[in-house]
Amino acid sequence: MTETVVSTEGSQEREFLGHPIGLSICFLTEMWERFSFYGMRALLILYLTKHFLFSTGEASLIYAAYTGLIYMLPILGGYFADRYLGSRKAVVYGGLLLVIGHLSLAFEGPPAEIVAGAVARSEEYVSIFFMSLAFIVTGVGFLKANISTVVGALYGPNDPRRDGGFTIFYMGINVGSFLATIIVAGVGETYGWGYGFGLAGFGMLIGLATFLWGQHLLEGRAEPPNETELKEPIFAGFLNREHIIYIVGLGLVGLMWFMMQFQELVGQLLDGTGILVLLILMAYGFLKSTKEERERIFVVIILLLFMTMFWMLFEQQGASLTLIADQQIDRNVAGLNITAGQVQTLNPFFIIVLAPIFAMMWTKMGHAGFEPSTPAKFALALIIVGLGYLLFVWGMSLDAGTDKSFLWMVQIYFFLTAAELCISPVGLSMVTKLSPTRIVGMTMGSFFLFIAIGNYKAGELSSLMGVGGHDAGGALDMDKTNELFMYAGGLSVGMGLLLLALTPLIRKWMHGVH
Asked: Domain spans of the chain?
């Protein structure tokens, strides 16, 4: 219900369900963007192994490079928006790139074939596929961080509705993810990959159209910081800064297309950048910080390192767990045939179910004085996700053959989601609270960088699970898979217990930050 009210600052403001009406546009835009993103992700590993006949190792490394770059580019997109474009223009440009990327995936080309014992695939269409991913990676880079910035800009600095607004916005992510993994994955696997990818692209087109239509409802709160500077010609007499940024964006598409074809290079870039960032943070802590600031920076570094392990296991959803669902699980549930990609619906489903429970649990524990601190929640996330994989391996070993119970997929996704709810809601907030104001932007960038590293490591771990050679169809070696899951799950539990033991010291270094 839309109404006009007087805001806390004395001006009239159109509202929707008690929030600035612009929130409805951001909610719908993000919902459709996530619909396209998660719909494509649900199909990606299956498309690579079944259409192009990439091996498990090859497909998983492509997935690794893609998800790693997805979380790395928002650092640059956020900079362009903060310094020049403003959030609104960045979201529009990112949305346009995403539409191009998702819709171009619909042109799948001829499937690969086995000829004389070797895989023969159309290199032209493989190149087009990599270019599509490059458009998506760059589009997410411009849109992802900045749509959240638009939401924040709708509220005044002391507006008590801000947290509620972000909660509503977060639900848009989960609604889009839930619908995508049911609809897009089902259509793509049942009727053809191109139809699924095309549907994801159409969803992004709706999201972009919604944002373009509703820009006036943002009431000028996400505009460029300096419109005059942005429009000032700086090249050839007619190209201004805005034009140059858009051209740079297209250059980034080309760079991402190149990087996607050299997946190991992406991993090396992420690892090298991660080490460099940690050294810079440590140097800043020792050379330009007070003792209190330095110790808080050390806390950030510690939690970033532990967080990487979590994301490596969490992001198996789009890689090895989807291949397991395809090859090892009886997906006939109560008479319904669930596709392998649709199994990923379990994560947003459990988010919707468990998020209110966790919120109430933390609140009650807080009132009683027992709510875990941020590092303790990180530790719990590592322990829960590790135990989830250990239980998953044990459960899968109980069922012989390739018709294992669907309940084991329910189990692992339940543990993944419970762990996610311990770490995701507090992660970024922790970084902003602990980092010195002078470097908060760099520290937030570091947070996303280590998510990117964790995502890449997820694909790297999945790449070790294939039967070896050109295993057409992405066949898994389940003995090797179970062994890796046991090792990674045990390591995660061990790291969680170590972090729990270090929590008293870490809390001391946090100097009152919760």
From this structure: 17-261, 263-514
